[in-house]
Automatic annotation (TrEMBL), chain A:
Gene Ontology, cellular component aspect: endomembrane system; membrane
Main subcellular location: membrane
Species whose genome carries this gene: Streptomyces griseorubiginosus
Subcellular location: Endomembrane system; Membrane
Protein name listed in UniProt: NADH:ubiquinone oxidoreductase subunit M
Automatic annotation (TrEMBL), chain B:
GO cellular component, one term: plasma membrane
Gene encoding the protein: nuoN
HAMAP family: NDH1_NuoN_1
Subunit structure: NDH-1 is composed of 14 different subunits. Subunits NuoA, H, J, K, L, M, N constitute the membrane sector of the complex.
Membrane topology classification: Multi-pass membrane protein
Keyword field: Cell membrane, Membrane, NAD, Quinone, Translocase, Transmembrane, Transmembrane helix, Transport, Ubiquinone
Molecular function, one GO term: quinone binding
Superkingdom classification of source: Bacteria
Pfam families, per the entry: Proton_antipo_M
Protein name: NADH-quinone oxidoreductase subunit N
Function summary: NDH-1 shuttles electrons from NADH, via FMN and iron-sulfur (Fe-S) centers, to quinones in the respiratory chain. The immediate electron acceptor for the enzyme in this species is believed to be a menaquinone. Couples the redox reaction to proton translocation (for every two electrons transferred, four hydrogen ions are translocated across the cytoplasmic membrane), and thus conserves the redox energy in a proton gradient.
InterPro entries recorded: NADH-Q_OxRdtase_suN/2 (IPR010096), ND/Mrp_TM (IPR001750)
Length: 523, 549
């Protein structure tokens, strides 16, 4: 038997999480280094997966399959396609930065009991989330996916509720109340979504008799598994609901601004750049493959919701006074683009959406982490409390600008390519929706540039006049992300080469052909 | 004197009684129950003859040995094939020895053993007058607050009678799911109920509340027993027999010989329907299903916490076992009549338990309502009326009982000056003071909520799957909705423990003896093992899923 590479990518952070949690209370720094090393080792494994992955080979590669719960028809089945491998790499890439950016976020303020070890817990939880997200990207068994899709809520919940942003306007008590409100809201939204999906998962079992994605998709394709139209639609809705909460899609998005606002900046990145990607990824992998007919049936409604997300998210971002909530609404707008790309049912749209997931992860991480550094210096999340920062902290301001420009999809930076592909892909089939969505870009320019103008330019406010520029640790976090944004903006081929074959297979699952004239995707 | 000699004007001589057939008793097949009953009687003798000082150790020893031996007997019977390839009806048709019976007996015995550990815990309360005390009243008969109570406490009395009472209750529970005729069912019901009523009244602290709980439980329980008994009488009137097999044949209309009396009553559906409904009502009372759940919160709150934990786990197992047997063995022919009713009961139980739990402020009451919601989930599996339905219920019961005992064992640890600190506000910030205890309790709560990778999820998935396959898809939808509602209050406790600031006058966490630690550790281990690798136990439940008739 060959080395179970995919299992290893998930088991390593899981074991790392346990080891980190077990570090004695006094050895906080050791716990941080341990977590960082584990995340780097995971990245190395993920790169190995990337190298071993052959884009033109079989659809699912590096597969593993073991009996697990025969009674439920559940197998432990892993395998990655191009989309999965891209997101796996993104996750493994971002976690070390998240850990490094949150280096001091969980240092204990007051000494609790002797056994109270918040720092160890913080980093252990991040690694636990990484393990669960990775296995959701790898699972080709619906039940296995579901288990980790749900289970990852628990460590996320503790990360949001247990380790809040210290830069809070109100009193400590108020901050704690808002934080636990945000955590509970996050958990309840996602749990309700997950439980509705559970009903659909059970329904799928009753219809199909097993949970293997490949087997079911194959049986659907060659007609041996026939679903009644209504059954398929209900099951599709059950799955889609959970993913739409996770993604999040308007009108199920309201948990995200709370969660991202109250969490520390690295955790906010973890939510939006890593965990939420599972939602959009699952739409591509499970909704389209398992329920192709229902997906086509629901497309118009979903496109309209995605469009609302794009415009609504952008409009609300314009109106925000809180930096982190602004980024959260911008993310809602971007998730609208991703979902629109997926359900446009064109290969450009889906390639673009996958690329968008990767780029959004990197660009949001860059913007949010720099914003986090900024906020930790001044101790406030309000835009109005800043001004003229670029004079005192030019590097900080510069990286903040690049992150912002990436968010508004400036040509030459990575998100531009993906946003362009999504819009082209949508326009080819739904011109009106494509045109309206373009306004999202205009609004994006508005909210990012206004944010930059208000915080970084103008007269230097007295409170920020002594603000130090980025430190070494912070530079190490930001610089690689900026380099990646520029590199993938100029040369996205490495990612599109991996993604495109997988998108083609998905397109053939839904029996969709690209409308003429054919536009070659990102060549 | 011969028989003829008593012949007179008023009496006529009976046929001379030549010989009574001695009933044939299969001691081997009945050994689990017999061992526990025997040990309970030894326990009574220990109370009478062993000096007060050594009673605790003697009782603990007898009980542990008996429960282990009985479990070994169950395993031996199962290994002999009684759970899989063959099944027996023992004691002249009174007791069934089949898969479900053995599976549930094994579960009850293990749950009883773990429960016993929490009964025997003597390190939580501070020593009074130089002697260690457990959770039970010094002297049950002394009036609360009276001088006699004070002198009993001063003398260091402990109510070691709880051990034989526990064993009697377990013995009744062992028979209950195995009973193969209605009279045995009723006798078993009383055998396990009476000791429980008594145990509920024995709390060391808050004695009035405990006694009130016991009286409520007793009155309502007696009422339910009366219902059951009346139902038994009606069903006997209908079928002319109390034996499960015979009644089932009469219901199906496949009875071999119909004598005129039977032909007369067989047509009377009122007898059958009312009788069946009353028996099922009595059983639903015991499982705590809405609308027969009113006793649950008060009793769970008032009873000594070890008793609550044991009762919540083992009573549910035994009662669902009996309910399964009644519905699947006696009344399958009536399926089209009872299914709609049980649908309604399951729906209101799931929703009612979950919704009312939201407003609770006492941890024991909260767990009580949670147990009601869980009864609803199990009912969803019962309604499936498929072999999968049986095995999923068996699995759920096993998973649930260990979570429950573990959770209540944790409740016994969190204490302040007044004993256990059960008010939720006192649990604020527990995660800061004692991260380990809070984390363990969080695991139990997540299992109750049915989060994946815990036994709660595997169990919930099993019953919902069975229900969906059995054509009860709407029940599954109601089930997931009430799971979502229930998740809210489990999460609230977790929020309280981890995200709230600890109070300065908050409770402390007692350091328990290895007894309670074992109970909690077993609970956590079972929760995680059944959550991550449930296959072996699902197989076990599957093999055990066939009733004998």
């Amino acid at each position: 038997m060959s080395f179970p590479l995919l299992t290893a990518t998930a088991v390593l952070p899981a074991v790392g999480a346990i080891a980190t949690a077990a570090v004695p209370a006094a050895r906080r720094t050791a716990a941080k280094w341990l977590a960082l090393l584990v995340s780097l080792a995971t990245l190395a494994l993920a790169i190995t997966v990337l190298v071993r992955f052959d884009p033109d080979g079989a659809r699912y590669q590096l597969t593993e399959s073991h009996a697990w719960i025969a009674d439920f028809g559940v197998r432990y089945e892993l395998g990655v396609d191009g989309i999965g491998v891209a997101l796996l790499a993104l996750t493994a890439l971002l976690i070390p930065f998240i850990i490094l950016a949150g280096w001091h976020d969980a240092d204990p303020l007051e000494t609790g009991s002797r056994r109270w070890r918040p720092t160890q817990g913080f980093f252990a939880l991040i690694l636990a989330v990484e393990a669960m997200v990775i296995i959701s990207f790898e699972a080709t068994d619906v039940f296995l996916f579901y288990i980790f899709f749900e289970a990852m809520l628990i460590p996320m919940y503790f990360l949001i509720g247990g380790f809040g942003d210290r830069a809070h306007a109100g009193s400590d008590e108020n901050a704690a109340a808002q934080r636990s409100y945000a955590a509970v809201k996050f958990l309840l939204y996602n749990l309700v979504g997950g439980l509705i999906m559970l009903a659909a998962v059970i329904g799928l079992y009753v219809v199909a008799g097993n949970f293997s994605l490949q087997e079911i998709a194959e049986a659907r394709a060659n007609g041996t598994l026939d679903m009644a139209t209504n059954t398929e639609r209900w099951l599709f809705l059950g799955f889609f609901f959970a993913f739409a909460v996770k993604a999040p899609l308007w009108p199920l998005h309201t948990w995200l601004p709370n969660a991202m606002g109250e969490a520390t900046a690295p955790v906010a990145v973890l939510i939006t750049a890593v965990v939420d990607k599972v939602g959009t990824f699952a739409m591509l992998r499970f909704c389209l493959q398992l329920f192709p007919e229902a997906s086509k049936w629901a497309t118009p409604a979903i496109l309209v919701l995605a469009l609302i997300s794009i415009v609504y998210g952008a409009l609300l971002a314009v109106g925000q006074r809180d930096i982190k909530r602004l980024v959260a609404y911008a993310s809602i707008s971007h998730f609208g683009f991703i979902i629109m790309g997926i359900f446009a049912m064109t290969s450009q749209g889906q390639s673009g959406a996958t690329l968008y997931m990767v780029n959004h992860g990197i660009s949001t991480a860059a913007l949010m982490l720099v914003a986090g550094f900024l906020i930790s210096r001044r101790g406030s999340r309000l835009i109005a409390d800043y001004g003229g920062v670029q004079k005192v902290a030019p590097v900080l301001a510069g990286t903040f600008l690049i992150g912002g420009l990436a968010t508004l999809s400036l040509p030459g930076l990575a998100p531009f390519v993906s946003e362009f592909l999504v819009l082209v892909g949508t326009f080819a089939r739904y011109p009106v929706i494509g045109i309206i969505a373009t306004f999202g870009i205009v609004l994006a320019a508005l909210y990012t540039l206004v944010l930059y103008q208000r915080t970084m330019t103008g007269p230097v406010k007295p409170e920020v006049s002594a603000m130090p520029d980025l430190r070494m640790r912070e530079l190490v976090v930001v610089a690689p992300l900026v380099v990646l944004l520029i590199f993938l903006g100029v040369y996205p081929k490495p990612v599109t080469d991996i993604v495109n074959p997988a998108v083609k297979s998905t397109m053939s699952d839904v029996h969709k052909k690209d409308p003429k004239p054919e536009v070659e995707a990102a060549k | 004197m011969s028989a003829v000699a008593v012949h007179s004007l008023w009496t006529t001589a009976a046929d001379p009684i030549s010989k009574i057939d001695a009933p044939k008793i299969e001691y081997g097949q009945l050994s689990p129950t017999l061992i526990v009953v025997g040990a309970a009687i030894i326990g009574v003798l220990v109370e009478a003859f062993v000096p007060r000082k050594s009673r605790y150790y003697a009782q603990l020893f007898v009980s542990v040995v008996a429960l282990c031996a009985a479990f070994a007997a169950v395993v031996a019977l199962a290994a002999d094939g009684y759970a899989t390839t063959k099944a027996g009806i023992a004691a002249m048709g009174a007791i069934a020895v089949d898969g479900p019976a053995l599976f549930l007996q094994g579960t009850i015995l293990l749950a009883g053993l773990v429960g016993l550990f929490t009964f025997a815990e003597r390190r939580l309360d501070p020593e009074t007058h130089g002697s260690r005390v457990d959770s039970f009243a010094a002297q049950a008969a002394s009036v609360p607050g009276s001088d006699s109570e004070k002198s009993a406490v001063k003398a260091g009395f402990t109510t070691t009678e709880v051990f034989p009472l526990l064993l009697f209750a377990i013995a009744g529970m062992l028979i209950f799911p195995a009973a193969n005729d209605l009279l045995t069912l009723f006798v078993a019901l009383e055998v396990f109920s009476l000791p429980l009523y008594l145990l509920c009244a024995l709390a060391r602290r808050k004695r009035l509340m405990s006694q009130e709980a016991a009286v409520k439980y007793f009155l309502l329980g007696a009422f339910a027993s009366a219902f059951t008994l009346f139902g038994i009488a009606l069903l006997y009137g209908y079928a002319g027999s109390v034996s499960y097999g015979t009644i089932a044949r009469v219901v199906d209309g496949t009875v071999a010989t119909v004598d005129p009396a039977l032909a007369d009553t067989m047509g009377n559906d009122a007898l059958l329907l009312i009788g069946a409904a009353m028996i099922v009502m009595g059983l639903l009372f015991k499982v705590g299903a809405v609308p027969f759940h009113m006793w649950t919160p008060d009793v769970y709150q008032g009873a000594p916490t070890p008793v609550t934990g044991f009762m919540a786990a083992a009573t549910k197992v035994a009662a669902f076992g009996a309910l399964l047997r009644i519905l699947y063995v006696v009344l399958p022919g009536l399926r089209w009549d009872w299914r709609p009713v049980m649908w309604a009961v399951a729906i209101v139980t799931m929703l009612g338990g979950a919704i009312v739990a939201i407003t609770q402020t006492d941890i024991k009451r909260l767990l009580a309502y949670s147990s009601i919601a869980h009864a609803g989930f199990i009912l969803a599996g019962v309604i499936a009326t498929t072999p999968d339905g049986v095995s999923s219920v068996l699995f759920y019961l096993a998973a649930y009982s260990f979570v429950t005992i573990g959770a209540f064992a944790v409740v016994t640890l969190v204490r302040d000056a007044g004993g256990e600190a059960t008010h939720l506000s006192k649990w604020a910030g527990l995660g800061r003071r004692s991260p380990l205890v809070a984390a363990v309790f969080a695991v139990f709560l997540l299992a109750f909520a049915g989060i994946p990778l815990t036994s709660g999820f595997a169990g919930k998935f099993a019953v919902f799957k069975a229900a969906a396959e059995g054509g009860a898809a709407p029940l599954v939808v109601v089930g997931v909705i009430s799971s979502a509602i229930a998740a809210f209050f489990y999460i609230r406790v977790i929020v309280l423990m981890f995200f709230s600031e600890p109070r300065p006058e908050g409770p402390t966490v007692a350091v328990p003896s290895p007894l309670t630690m074992t109970a909690i550790a077993v609970g956590v281990a079972v929760t995680l093992v059944l959550g991550v690798a449930p296959q072996y136990f699902l197989d076990l439940a599957n093999q055990a899923g066939v009733f004998v008739r």
